[in-house]
Amino acid sequence: MNPLLILILVFSGFFFAVVDWQKNSASVAADTGGEVVKRPEAHVAPTPTIRLSDVKPKLNKIRAAIRPAASLPKIEPMAKPLVASPSKQPAQAGGFDLGRLKRGAESLRPFLDYRPPQKIMVFEPGKVEEILPEIKSTNQQDANLYLASNEAVESVKQARSGQSQRQGLKNDEGAKELKGSDFEVVWFRPGRDDNQERMIPASEDYRQSLRGPDYTFIKVDERDEEAMYALLSRVLSLGHGGELMIKVKDSGYLSDGSGADFKIFENAFRVSGNYVYQEFAEVGVSMSLEPGSFRWFDCNPDQGVLYGCVGAVPSYEGGDLFDLGDVKLEQARYIWIRDLGHNKNLVSKDGPRYPTEGADLDAIELIHAYKNE
After folding, report:
1. DSSP state, 51?
2. Which of 259, 258, 266, 261 is nearest to 236 (CA)?
3. Hey, what long-range contacts does 350-355 have (CB within 8 A, 24 or more apart)?
4. Distance between CA 178 and CA 169 in Å, rounded?
5. pTM of the model
């Protein structure tokens, strides 16, 4: 408010107060016949003197605190409404963050988008990383996708080669050495396919499928059903939870010799150049079929233990080596191979369906096999 206006109001009030007092005095004189009646004197506080120099500083402070609207900054209308910028989302496949895998994992997208696994297990030397989906899929498969880095596969190979330096037992004199293919199938119990139906193997000649290793990754037209079955007949796919029992023929036996005593080839293969795609089976050995007589090699992928598993090392890199000394046996006649039951099969939405679920055995080779003459 203007300080001059304030002063005018103050002095106007004082002026009208004086005028009113004079009117009252005149009225009293009229009522008493013109005689002025002297009233008792009352104690009246002196009227304070108001100086402009005293009021002006306070008024200036008020004016500074209350800024006129004209001095406020003008609010300009926004050219565009504010839109929250979404954070950059990592590449997703089947609900999984591919950014957590090494470069080249994009090649796994078709297999993750179609019936994604419950989790991805990634093996590194001495450890295993579990990757869970960030978004759960309605068509999720009750299986795990196992991937091992190149370094993890090399560490398994080195550990097994170290065992090969161990000196085994001497064989009985007079025993005849058998060939690597001198075994026969006792029984085969196919597991189930991805639809939980009984799987039908590509070939009924199980022994022929286990010769080799001869499974190759030659480019075959997947639409040529006859050519595909011919290729798949070179391996024996166990199916989820499938089992195979073989024995050394002619009453022969495996002996704990120096290093590995037999090999099993599973068609694990490299994907994207950084990982080996794996499907696992466990192995037990015994001299008889009596219940409880089998000794099982140490295989627990979910805990990062691959040393005693089938499927850890690709066929074309030497396959998986087994030493009877690891299970404290001197001799064995039977080999029991059992699929773990939750291997993720690499099949895409647009790809044809073939019976390849579970661990795929390319070959079995006996090393220290003998029979008594």
Report:
1. -
2. 266
3. 350/110, 351/110, 351/222, 352/222, 352/223, 352/225, 352/228, 354/202, 354/228, 354/229, 354/232, 355/193, 355/199, 355/200, 355/201, 355/202, 355/232, 355/237, 355/239
4. 17
5. 0.73
Residue entry with tokens 């899929």: 137
CB atoms within 10 A of CB 189: 14
* Average pLDDT along the chain, 373 residues, taken 10 residues at a time: 55 52 47 46 53 62 55 46 44 82 80 88 93 84 92 94 65 83 96 89 88 79 84 92 97 94 93 88 97 96 95 93 96 98 84 84 96 88
Burial class (CB in 10 A: 0-12, 13-18, 19+), 207: middle
Which residues, 6 or more positions from 96, have their beta carbon under 8 angstroms from its beta carbon?
A: 112, 116, 120, 131, 133, 134
The Cα 281–Cα 360 span in angstroms is: 9
Please tell me whether residue 116 adopts helix, strand or coil conformation.
coil
Q: Could you give the angle at the alpha carbon of 67 between the alpha carbons of 65 and 71, nearest 5°? A: 150
Query: Cβ(343)–Cβ(279) under 8 Å?
Result: yes
